[in-house]
Write a structure and sequence with these properties.
Elements: H1 2-5, E1 12-16, H2 18-26, H3 30-36, E2 37-42, H4 43-53, H5 58-68, E3 73-76, H6 89-101, E4 105-106, H7 110-116, E5 122-123, H8 127-134, H9 140-154, H10 160-170
Parallel strand pairs: 1-2, 1-4, 2-3, 4-5
Helix pairs in contact: 2-5, 4-5, 8-9, 9-10
Length: 172
C-alpha cells in the first residue's frame, strides 16, 4: 500500500463516483489524493456534481470544491455491457468501466459495494485515510479527526463505513 501512494511518474489509478469525491473533498483530502493517484470518473458523475453545485447548501459548496479539481481527472465513458438491475445508470457505467479496465472503484454507496464486490475491486473513500496513515502521509490522530468530521458531514453516525474504518485506523 505504501508504494502505491508515493509520488511517482506512474500514479495508481482509481475510478471515483460522486459520493466518494464529495466525501474526500468535504474533509479536504481530495487534493492530496490527486497528488498521489490518478482519478478517473465519467461524464455522468461530472454532471451530478454540476447539478449539486447549483444548490446553496453544504453539498453544493463541496461539489464546487470537487469541480475546481476537474482538470486533474480523466473523464472516460464505458458501455454498460453488464447491467446490475439494482443500480442506477451512472453506477452501472462506473461498474463497467472498473470491470473493463481493472481499475478499482471508490464509492461510499453501500448498494454499489454490495452488488459489485465479487466482480470488481471496490473500496469506500475512507480507504485513503487508512492508506495515507500506512504510508506515513498523515498521522493516526489526523486520520481519526478527519473520520469524525466526515462522519458528521455525511451523517454516518453508526454507519458501517465509519465503524469499519475507525477499527482499522485504531488497529494500525
Amino acid at each position: 500500500m505504501e508504494k502505491t501512494l508515493k509520488r511517482s511518474p506512474e500514479k495508481k489509478s482509481f475510478i471515483f463516483d460522486t459520493s466518494a469525491l464529495i466525501s474526500l473533498a468535504s474533509i479536504d483530502l481530495l487534493k492530496r489524493v490527486v497528488n498521489f493517484s490518478s482519478i478517473t470518473t465519467t461524464d455522468a458523475v461530472m454532471q451530478e456534481l454540476n447539478d449539486f453545485s447549483k444548490h446553496k447548501d453544504d453539498y453544493g459548496n463541496i461539489s464546487k470544491k470537487v469541480l475546481i479539481l476537474k482538470n486533474k481527472f480523466l473523464i472516460r465513458s464505458a458501455e454498460a455491457k453488464e447491467e446490475i438491475r439494482y443500480l442506477e445508470d451512472t453506477d452501472n457505467e462506473l461498474f463497467n468501466l472498473s470491470k473493463n479496465t481493472n481499475i478499482p472503484l471508490i464509492t461510499d454507496d453501500h448498494k454499489i459495494v454490495h452488488h459489485t464486490e465479487k466482480k470488481i475491486e471496490v473500496y469506500f473513500s475512507t480507504f485513503f485515510l487508512i492508506a495515507f496513515v500506512a504510508a506515513g502521509l498523515i498521522s493516526k490522530k489526523e486520520a481519526l479527526e478527519m473520520l469524525e468530521r466526515l462522519r458528521d458531514i455525511r451523517n454516518w453516525q453508526s454507519n458501517i463505513i465509519y465503524l469499519t474504518t475507525i477499527d482499522q485506523i485504531r488497529s494500525m
